[in-house]
């Protein structure tokens, strides 16, 4: 198994070493879904549950480019029939993993599908320093840790090391059908690791932008969800400026966020719709209450 997985990488690989040690002890678990419509990641803040509302309000036809500057798991992108897309996110590990999935789906899935589902393997893999891995191994490690971590949260310590505990419940990796279909959808997309401003500033008339930023909570310490310092209160006005300028250039835009009068006041003349949603990121079940969300559109 080790030799087959290396595919030309002669150097020592800590992942192959781990796989050889745990071989046959615990089987991997494969998870199904609708190929082409199912994301390969479980992403905290994913809009999977809001899809009916988002699809109802999203621009049906887009003659230009579909932009998703906070792409995460890309739940809405998969539902949209855009001919051209620019998917971007500030998380470099996420975007690097997507690039490998797009260009080498078989190799990433071959490695991923050999990874067992037990707790010991999760923590051993989490401990492996990603710097020591080749690109395929990094992508497989990223997807595995995301699939088995607590609620699909991406959080790092001050050194930038992923430090989310393993989750529980029915966890597994996406089946090959899902993986392959997702990779095929990525073929039409440009993948960019960048701040939201880069993608929004490029949008022009005929383009559609779906903006789904992290929710800033000024009452809580930033615990590094989505990476330390990735999006804070000061970014809200920067985002509003970029979106309003793209709107003036003729791009059609939809933005989802938690209810915030401050945010609404920055989007003068936009349509605002409110709805309730069940929050699931908290590990405290008692705190998983319904929360008010908003959807802003400039059309
Ligand atoms: C709410 S999640 C998006 C979820 C996505 N819509 C989905 O359905 O999975 C917010 C995303 O913003 C990304 N992010 C945080 N700060 C950013 C920034 N300054 N520029 C671009 N992306 C950023 C995070 O990495 C995260 O993937």
TrEMBL record:
Give the PROSITE patterns listed for this entry. Answer: N6_MTASE
**Keywords, in A-Z order:** Methyltransferase, S-adenosyl-L-methionine, Transferase
- Give the similarity note: Belongs to the N(4)/N(6)-methyltransferase family.
Q: Could you provide one GO biological process annotation from this protein's UniProt record?
A: methylation
Gene3D superfamilies named among the record's database cross-references: Adenine-specific Methyltransferase, Domain 2 (1.10.1020.10), Vaccinia Virus protein VP39 (3.40.50.150)
- Molecular function, one GO term: site-specific DNA-methyltransferase (adenine-specific) activity
Question: EC number(s) for this protein?
Answer: 2.1.1.72
According to UniProt, the reaction catalysed is: a 2'-deoxyadenosine in DNA + S-adenosyl-L-methionine = an N(6)-methyl-2'-deoxyadenosine in DNA + S-adenosyl-L-homocysteine + H(+)
Is Ribosomal protein a UniProt keyword of this protein? no
Tell me the protein's name. Answer: Site-specific DNA-methyltransferase (adenine-specific)
* Source superkingdom: Bacteria
């Amino acid at each position: 198994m080790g030799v087959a997985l290396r595919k030309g990488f002669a150097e020592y690989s800590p992942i192959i070493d781990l796989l050889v040690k745990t071989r046959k002890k615990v089987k991997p678990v494969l998870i199904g879904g609708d190929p082409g419509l199912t994301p390969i990641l479980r992403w905290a803040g994913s809009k999977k549950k809001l899809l009916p509302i988002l699809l109802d309000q999203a621009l049906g036809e887009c003659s230009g480019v579909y932009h998703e500057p906070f792409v995460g798991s890309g739940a809405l992108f998969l539902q949209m029939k855009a001919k051209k897309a620019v998917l971007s996110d500030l998380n470099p590990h996420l975007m690097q993993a997507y690039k490998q999935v797009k260009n080498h789906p078989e190799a990433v899935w071959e490695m991923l599908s050999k990874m067992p589902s037990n707790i010991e393997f999760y923590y051993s893999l989490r401990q492996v320093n990603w710097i020591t891995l080749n690109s395929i191994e990094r992508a497989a490690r990223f997807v595995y840790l995301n699939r088995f971590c607590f609620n699909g949260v991406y959080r790092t310590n001050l050194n930038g090391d992923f430090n989310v505990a393993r989750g529980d419940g029915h966890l597994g990796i996406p089946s090959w059908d899902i993986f392959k279909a997702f990779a095929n959808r990525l073929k039409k997309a440009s993948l960019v690791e960048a701040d939201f401003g880069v993608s929004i500033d490029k949008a022009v008339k005929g383009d559609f932008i779906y903006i789904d930023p992290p929710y800033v909570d000024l009452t809580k310490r930033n615990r590094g969800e989505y990476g330390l310092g990735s999006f804070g209160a000061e970014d809200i006005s920067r985002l509003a400026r970029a979106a309003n300028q793209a709107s003036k250039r003729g791009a059609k835009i939809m933005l989802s966020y938690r209810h915030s009068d401050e945010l609404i006041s920055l989007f003068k003349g936009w349509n605002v719709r409110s709805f309730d949603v069940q929050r699931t990121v908290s590990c405290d079940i008692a705190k998983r209450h319904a929360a008010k969300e908003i959807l802003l559109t400039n059309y």
